[in-house]
Design goal:
Elements: H1 2-12, E1 17-24, H2 34-50, E2 57-64, E3 68-75, H3 97-101, H4 109-119, E4 123-129, E5 133-141
Parallel strand pairs: 1-2
Antiparallel strand pairs: 2-3, 3-5, 4-5
Helix pairs in contact: 1-2, 2-4
Bound molecules: adenosine-5'-triphosphate (ATP).
Subcellular location: Cell membrane
Organism: Parageobacillus caldoxylosilyticus NBRC 107762
Domain Histidine kinase: 1-144
Length: 144
Amino acid sequence: AVEQVVKNFRVLHPDFQFTIDNSAIQTAHIRMTKYHFEQLLLILLDNAVKYSQQAKQVTILIKEEKRYVTIAVKDYGIGIPKEELEKVFLRFYRVDKARSREKGGVGLGLAIAKEIIDKYDGQITIDSEVGKGTTVELAIPKAE
Ligand code: ATP
């Protein structure tokens, strides 16, 4: 499923290099609709591309844990200051208004992502370093 979404996303951003590492997963099934899963992935990929600047590389790392499948989308872009990290999940919140306005968007992507993942009792976490890049990880409950 990840492959399909990324394949379609590549068409929109042919200048980017998307790498999928799924070596740490077998055939786990997740407890989430395909529609919501794709929506989540698209929000994260869209942000990774939008805030990448010259580093045109995005890595998707999929892992299987005891109760969750985790999917981390990592970019090497502008990053987010530590003190802003927890606020990016708020509706209409955007880091550095002037800089991000020219990138389009209204600040809803991550708020929607959090709403979806919360409904499924999953987690979304974000880790970032200014100038180095950002990793957003989804933990989605596995189906039994
Ligand atoms: P949209 O509503 O189109 O998603 P948006 O990208 O501004 O617009 P969010 O996805 O909610 O909204 O992101 C909120 C803010 O978090 C962004 O404005 C941006 O400042 C910051 N952000 C999100 N993802 C990244 C990322 N991968 N790298 C750097 N900053 C990010």
